[in-house]
Amino acid sequence: EGVELAERHGLSAKIIHNTLEGLKKFIDMGIPPIVIMPGLQNVVQHASVISGYDDQEKSIFHYIPSPSSEGEFQVGVIPESKFDSLWQEDGRLM
Asked: CB neighbours of 79 closer than 8 A, spacing ≥ 6?
C-alpha cells in the first residue's frame, strides 16, 4: 500500500530485505530508510522512518509517529539488539 502511494506521487520505491549494516549504509548516504516492523496494538505491521544510529551506544534512532505535547515530532531511541530482533520478525524489510 505504501509503495503504491509513493509511486502515485511520482516517487520510486522498492521493498528489499537488508541487514543492520546495510541499513546503516543507507543512513550514511543520507537516505533515511523506512523499515517494516511488527504491529502495534491492533495493527499487523507498521512502517518506521529510521533517522540515524549511534555505534558507541549501539542505538537506532527513529521518528515517533505522534507529535509531542508541543506539536513537534519526536525521535525515539531503540537499543540496536532490540531493534534488530523486532525487525527480523518480518524479514528485515525496508
From this structure: 58, 59, 60
Phi, psi values for residue 18, rounded to 5°: -145, -175
Beta-carbon neighbour count of residue 37 at 10 Å? 19
DSSP 44: S
Write the pLDDT tens digit of every residue in 34-45. 998 886 666 567
Residues 6+ apart with CB under 8 A from 90: 36, 37, 38, 45
Say if residue 76's pLDDT is above 90: no
pLDDT in tens, 54-64: 999 999 998 76
Where do the structural domains in the chain lie, given as residue ranges? 15-88
Taking the C-alpha atoms of residue 91 and residue 48, their distance in angstroms, rounded to an integer, is 15
Phi-psi region of 30 (alpha: psi -120 to 50; beta: other; left: phi over 0): left
Question: What span, in angstroms and rounded, lies between the C-alpha atoms of 9 and 67?
Answer: 25
